[in-house]
């Protein structure tokens, strides 16, 4: 074989090798792009799922509030609301055909903060585990779930009770028989709008935490396994 033929063969071999490497690199890039696309889809799906759950909870509360309003129209309870114990309100809901198995009648403003037993301060009935988990610590979240207008009503009835000694009986006593009025509690300087805004802030924090958790999970998935 002469030198020119040997050079041509070497050149052809080099070209073929480069073509194979290019194909291999292209395949690897395609696989990495596909993996990134799937990862993006997973993160997007996780975010959408969390958003869906939050929206679903809000829709559920809205539907329940509408059911209560319709039931109130068919009952003897005044449209302006009525004082009643939670047990009676629970019976009222059950008689209206609403399934509240495993739920607690829910105060918007906790009784520990001066929230009275009044229909304007009841947030329908929510899961008993949720109720007992948050206790009296997240009135702002309750106000956000109830909606701005119902939050205003809850604060108004709490202030009305605090201003009239004859109505103090509608605030449940806490530990050691102690009774706290709204104007004495932690929310005494707040109106319904303020508490609703606090709840909105809580939800934003939860959404941010969910997004950060999804990003952290994505980073862990991308970390090479040793």
Structure notes:
The protein is mostly helical. The chain has one domain (3-222). The protein has six helices and two strands. It has helices at 3-74, 86-95, 128-134, 139-146, 148-163, 192-222, and strands spanning 103-107, 122-127. The protein has a two-stranded antiparallel sheet. Helix 1 (3-74) runs antiparallel to helix 6 and helix 4 packs across helix 6. 23% of the residues are buried. The mean pLDDT is 81.
Which structural class do you get from the secondary structure elements? mainly alpha
Tally the helices: 6
The string of secondary-structure elements, in order, is HHEEHHHH
Number of strands: 2
Residues in helix, %: 55-70%
Largest sheet, described in full?
2 strands, antiparallel
Measured by DSSP, the beta-strand proportion falls in under 5%
Shape verdict: elongated
Number of domains: 1
- Poorly predicted tracts of residues: none
Strand order, largest beta sheet? 1-2
Distance between the termini: 51 Å
Rounded to the nearest angstrom, the radius of gyration is 31 Å
Average pLDDT figure: 81
């Amino acid at each position: 074989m002469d030198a020119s033929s040997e050079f041509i063969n070497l050149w052809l071999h080099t070209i073929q090798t480069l073509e194979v490497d290019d194909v291999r690199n292209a395949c690897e890039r395609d696989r990495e792009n596909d993996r990134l696309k799937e990862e993006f889809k997973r993160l997007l799906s996780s975010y959408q799922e969390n958003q869906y759950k939050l929206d679903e909870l809000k829709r559920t509360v809205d539907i329940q509030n509408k059911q209560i309003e319709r039931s109130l129209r068919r009952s003897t309870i005044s449209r302006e609301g009525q004082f009643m114990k939670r047990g009676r309100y629970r019976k009222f809901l059950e008689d209206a055909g609403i399934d509240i198995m495993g739920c607690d009648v829910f105060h918007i403003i906790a009784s520990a903060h001066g929230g009275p037993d009044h229909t304007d301060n009841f947030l329908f009935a929510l899961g008993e585990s949720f109720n007992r988990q948050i206790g009296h610590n997240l009135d702002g979240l309750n106000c956000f779930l109830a909606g701005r207008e119902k939050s205003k009503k809850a604060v108004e009835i709490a202030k009305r009770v605090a201003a009239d000694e004859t109505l103090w009986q509608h605030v449940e006593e806490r530990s050691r028989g102690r009774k706290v009025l709204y104007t004495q509690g932690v929310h005494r300087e707040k109106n319904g709008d303020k508490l609703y805004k606090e709840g909105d802030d809580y939800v934003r924090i939860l959404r941010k935490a969910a997004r950060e958790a999804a990003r952290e999970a994505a980073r862990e998935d991308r970390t090479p396994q040793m």
